[in-house]
Structures are given as structure tokens and as C-alpha cells.
Amino acid sequence: MMREFWHYFRNGLLGENPVLKLMIGLCSVLAVSVRVENCLGMGAAVIFVLTCSSLVISLIRNFVPNEVRIPIFIVVISTFTTIVDLVMKAYLPPLSKAMGIFIPLIVVNCIIMARAEAFASRKPPLLAVADALGMGVGYTLVITAIGVVRELFGYGEILSHPVFPRAYQGMMAMILPPGAFLLIGISIALLNWSLKKVKP
Amino acid sequence: MSTEILTLFKIIVSAAFVDNIILARYIGLCPYIGMSSSVANSIGMGMAVTFVMVLASIVTWVLWNFIFVPLGLEYLRIMVFILVIATLVQLVEILLKKNVPNLYRAMGIYLPLITTNCAILAVTFLGVDYGYTLLQVVVYSISVALGFTVALVLLAGIRERLRLARVPQFWQGYPIVFVATCLLAIAFLGFKGLVK
Amino acid sequence: MNILIPTVLVGALGLAFGLMLSFLAKKFAVPVNPLVQEVERVLPGANCGACGFPGCSGLAEKIASGEAPVNACPVGGPKVWAELSRLLGQEGSSWEVKRAAVLCQGGKGVAQVVAEYSGVASCKAANLLPGSFKGCRFGCLGLGDCVRVCPFSAIHIDLESGLPVVDWEKCTGCGKCVAECPRKILALVPRKEQVTVACVSPDSAREVRKACARGCIKCQVCVRTCPEGAITFENGKIVISREKCTLCGLCIEKCPTHCIIRVGKTAALLEVRG
Amino acid sequence: MKNILRVALALTVVCVVAACALSVVHVVTKEKIAEEAKKELKEALGVVFPKAETFTPLDLAAFGTLPESKDIQFLEAYEAQSGGERQGLVFKVASTGYGGPIVLLVGVDTKEGKITGLKVLEHQETPGLGSNVAEAGFLSQFLGKSLESPFRVGEDVQAVSGATISSRAVARACAKVAEIVRGEGR
Description:
The complex is a heterotetramer.
Chain B: H1 2-18, H2 29-34, H3 39-71, H4 77-99, H5 101-107, H6 111-115, H7 118-129, H8 134-162, H9 174-189
Helix pairs in contact in B: 1-8, 3-4, 3-7, 3-8, 4-5, 4-7, 7-8, 8-9
Chain C: H1 4-27, H2 34-42, H3 55-65, H4 77-87, E1 98-102, H5 123-128, H6 145-149, E2 155-157, E3 164-166, H7 176-180, E4 186-190, E5 194-197, H8 205-211, H9 221-225, E6 231-234, E7 237-240, H10 250-254, E8 260-263
Helix pairs in contact in C: 2-3, 2-4
Chain D: H1 2-48, E1 54-58, E2 72-82, E3 85-96, E4 101-109, E5 114-122, H2 136-139, H3 164-185
Antiparallel strand pairs in D: 1-2, 2-3, 3-4, 4-5
């Protein structure tokens, strides 16, 4: 069981990384990754929602009638999303403000629904949690990596601490939408390149 | 009257172009990347999104303003709205399949993709956030869907052209699509400041 | 109270939606052919689209209704086809296994080149230029669109002739190259030894002669030569009947431009140069 | 029929459980959220009017007809008090910038007729250009300015480079607030 657990965990991390390989959950990646701080917050929120809803869906998978499968899954997911939303508003108001509409939009983050449909509704709870954790951590890694690059070049700071000399003029392209699109394109190309290098 | 029309016009321009849901707000990217491989597909998807978006924003607007705000249950918004959308999508699918099989064939395969299309949920949220009237919400959702479709069809056109081009090996597939999107987004930045 | 109202309200919503969905699902149920689901289960499920239908479910529907042949899925291969024909009760019926063939011999030194082309290296792009860079308006451009589109790496460009060569061992007959070729030079042919005209040009003798040494000039020597009467001249084209042809090879010998070739003779490789 | 009920009940049960869980979380976090919002407002008010200790909300109608136009909107007003005595006013104003309304607080010392502070609460200006109007570097030039100043970009206010429209929006907000306070004084 433990072996399988790690297998599915690693799968989400590398082999089927949700952002770079499966191309899902992109919206929040691009929108939130302006600051590393936001990335970490978003990553934590996604991991929480993904893991909890995968667990619950996997537990109730045998009682769910097929006709209302999707509404039920989405109610479960939205419950955890709202919990995250409320808790963040109460205890981390600046972060919640910075992420704005993208916290509620976790509910439609394709990663969660896709994993619920494809994995959690078919596998026992432990494996569902493994998959969810792997996917969530994989997502967080990618979003943070992009966040580091964007914040470093866009503002010359990391986690709001200046890194470059004060004379550094932020690169606006990194902060604006076009830069985000360009950056994610570059990341995928880099990933393709490195995968080819490793095993030709 | 004329100011009302002017407001509506402003909503149309800003929703469809200035704040284009994909290129300026980064919402709805998954179907944008997934469904833009050919112009025909992208038009089908655009139609389906428009249809569901308008329906969903009307239903959620009514629920919101007549039930949830009076009862002070704003915090249930995420759950109720997404439940409405999920149900609506499934209903539309069932009804179309039975009554308008032709239309179902044209956009049916896109319908399941719409439940998890963040653009729809975002529009219902923004519609009530901006405090629009029912008429304005309808116009708003139509224009957002228009903006979505425009961006989708534009990218599909570019991708059809890209097939002729020789792309460096590691840039083939998604990377080059994102570069194209980047250029589109730069073009749409030009609309900024259009609506005051 | 704080908990009761929302619970009742959302519960009521859930009940209403649930009733609505399940009721309508029953009332408006469209009978789904159980066969479709079984067919879909047999198909590979990769949703690759090589069959030309919208995903595996789209193909399953067509196969179940008989609109598509059981061998429509090139990826599944004979194993899937056999399984499907068993499912559909068509066991024993022989489906034709197809392979792609290149119907042009106008390679380097054979076909006339009228201009040097240095544009986008793609047949589709080159074909947009009026007349392109070759003398023949119908011949192979050799820029390899078919090579790039082939999902099974079954096609390569022969360096000597500059023409594509199909490896019949790898080819699955999916037809993607046939659809991709802007000049419609590739065709799907039965996977067996056969004699065919390797030229698609409908031009007159003089035009063909000018542009290519291996083009069909419609002299109809082959029609007169064939002892079986398998070759006819229809609508300005030479047609070889596969049923009547005995593969004797007389027409190949007599053809003045050597544009009739034998296909699939050795190791299933298409002999492009006759 | 039985099946229909079963399906509907399944959805209902999930909905009920979800709503229950949510309302519990809501009850737990409600106070804290309201508190945070209050604290945030208090902090912001403190920044624009450091001298005052307490702020009481005022009815905007008390200021007569406000200059309502498509470029500027008055949202809220507060009275800044120190030792129970009125020291000045703070206005929450929405002024149209480049990307949309810039919502900002403007603090005015009514006794000395000076601007005491500015704080941008919300804006949708271009990051890296217009967004700089929310930075201290730009806003500090308004500090201590007399209400009689023209508040015009290019005359007594230096615009942020590349963001003239955003800068104008902030200056306009100050000018309108000054106008109202001057009108009230008379």
C-alpha cells in the first residue's frame, strides 16, 4: 500500500504534472504568480481543497448515483473552497485581497474536478489522497517557480524583499498578461528540452 | 434613456475587449488552449459557452438578489452558483439531446467541458459584484462570451497557420501556442484606457 | 438559526435540482445503443482522432451503426478489428487492410524543376504558389508534409530521389498522409502485390512529356498490351482492374515512360522507382 | 419513481451536509472577518490622519450637493476627532483613472486648511506605471498642501512618469475634496 502511495504521489509531481504536462489549472497559475507570496498561498489553498475533496469523494464514491455525479462532486469541492475563502478572509486578509476572485475560482480549477472524475471517484481513499497530494504539490512547485521569476524580474524582489539594487526598474512585461503567457511557454519548452536531454 | 444605452455600450466594449476575459484576466484558459486547434471547433465551443453563460448569469442573478442577499447568506455564493451551473449544464445537455439533436451534435461534446470552465463562474460572480441590473447582466454575459469567442477563434486561426511553419523542436505544441497568445495579449493591451 | 436557514435553503435547492435532473434524465432519456458502449470499451480510448471521427466515442457510434467499417481505427490494429467484428457478428468477413502508396515518380533528375524554391519548407505552403517550382502541376513536391503528419513514422524522404517512401511494415493505413498531401499524390491501396499507374497527372501527352520523364502520356499502349483486358482508359485516366489483373507485368515492360509500377512486391516496401 | 427519489435525496443529503459545515465555519469566522475589516479601515484612516484618535462616520448628505460627475464619486465621509474635538474630515473618493476607478482616502485638517494624508485603497491601473500613484513617492507631495492650491498636474503636482492620467485622477480627487471643505467652511 505504501509503495502504491508513493507511486501515485510521484506521478502527480513529475510524470503527470498538472500544469506543464496536462495543461490544466492554468488560469490561476498565470493570474496569481505575480508575487511568490501569493503563489504559496494559492498552492496551500489548492492542496487543501484538492486533498480534502479527493478524500471525501473517494469515501462516498459508492453511494453517488451517476445522474447527479457532477453536481455532488462540485458541491463537495465548493464546500472546501468556501472554507478556505472564509478562513483566509478572517486570518490572512491581505493575501485574500491579493488573490481576489481566484480563491472562489479554485472550485472550477480543472485540476480538482479532473482528479475527482478520473481518480478519486474510482480509487480507495488512501490512494486518492496520494494522488491529490502529488498533484497539489506539483502544482505548487510550478506556480512558485514561475512566481519567483516574475517577482524577481518584475519587481526586483523576492517575497517583497529587494534583491536587486534600488535602481533596478521592474520589467513590466513580467507583470502584465503577455509576459505571463510568454513565461509559461518558455517553461514548457524548457521542460520539453530537459526531458529530451535526460532520455534521448 | 440615452445614458442607459451608453452604459450598456460601455459594458459591451469593456467586457469584450478591454477586460477580455482570457487575454486580460487570465480566466477560462483551459478551454482556450484545449479547444483552439481548429476554427470550426472554436466556433462550436464559443456558441456553447455563450449559451450557458447567459443562462447561468440570469439564474444566479435572480437567486442572488431575491433570496441570498435578503437572507444575508452571501457566504454560500460559491457553492450555490457552481451548483446552479453544474445542474444547468446537465439539463441543457439532456434537453438538447432529446429535442434538438442537431444542435446537440454541434456543441454537445463541449458541454461537459463547460462545468469546469472558470469563465462561466467568474462571469456570474462579477455580474453580481458590479451590481448590474438584470438587463445589464444579460448584456455583460453576452459580451464576455463574445470576447471569449473572439480570442478563441483568433488563436485557432493562428494555430491553423502555425501548422505551416517550421517551429523549433522544443517549441512545438503548447509553447508556441503560448507565445502566440502572448502576442495576442499585447495586441489587446492596446484597448486599455478605451473606456473611461 | 444561523445554521438552520442556510441548511434548509440549500437542502431545498439540492432536492429541487436533484428531482429535476433525475426526472428529466428519465423523461428525456435517449435510448443509447448498448452496442455503442461495448464498442467503445474495445477501442483503445486514446481519442487521437486518427480515424477522422470526434474521439473514440464518436467512432464507436459510427461502427455500431455500421456507418464505419470495423477496421476504421488504425491504432487498434488487427486485434481490435477482430474483437469488433466478433462483437458485431461479422466474424469471418474479410476487411481490406489498406496501406498508403506514393503515386508519383517525378523525383530528382526525372521531373523538370522550373524554379529554385527557398520558401517555407512545407508542401502546403509551396503549393500555394501558382505552378510551384516544378514543371508538373500534379507531381510530388517532396517537402515532406506526409512525413511530418505520419503518427507512426512510416514515411521518410528518399535522399536519392527526393520522394517520400512508405514503409508498409510501419504503415497502419490511417490515411492521415492522404488527407495532408495538398496534391493528392498519396492514396490508400490494398495491402497486397499489385500493378498500378504511378502518375496522377491528367495533362495531355505534350505537357506531361515536357515536365517529367516518368509521367503517364495516355498513349494507351498498356490497354492494348494487357492479355486479360484488365486495363481500360476511362475519362482520360488509365484504370487497372485489380480483379482481372494477374500481375504478369507485360504492361510494365511495354510502358514507354515506365510509369506503371509493381507495388508491395518485396518486403512490403513500395518500390517507387519501378 | 423510486430511483428518481433516491437520486434527488443523494444530492439533497450532500447539499445539507455541505451547507451545515459551511454555516458553522461562517459563524466561527464571521466576527473575525468583520473585526479585520474594521481594523483595516481604522489603520487606513490612521494613515491619512495621524493626529486623530477616533473616527466617526458622517452622512454624506450633510455636505449638500456633492460634485457628482462620471469622473468622481464620493463614497464615504468620516469625522476625525482628537480629545472629543473635531480636527478634520476624511473622505473616501472614487476617481476615474486609466484602468478604472481609483478608490482613495483623503484626509483634510479643517482647522489649518491642509491635506493631512492620502491612501489608495483600490485601483486597476497598469502595474509598473499607473500603479505607482499608490506609492508614497507620489502621494507625499500632497502632504501639508493648502486647500487653496490648484491641485493641477504639471503646476503644483508632479505626475508619475508614464502615468499622467492616473496622476490626474488623484489630483482631481484632492481638488474636489478641497472644494467641498472650503464650501463647508463658508
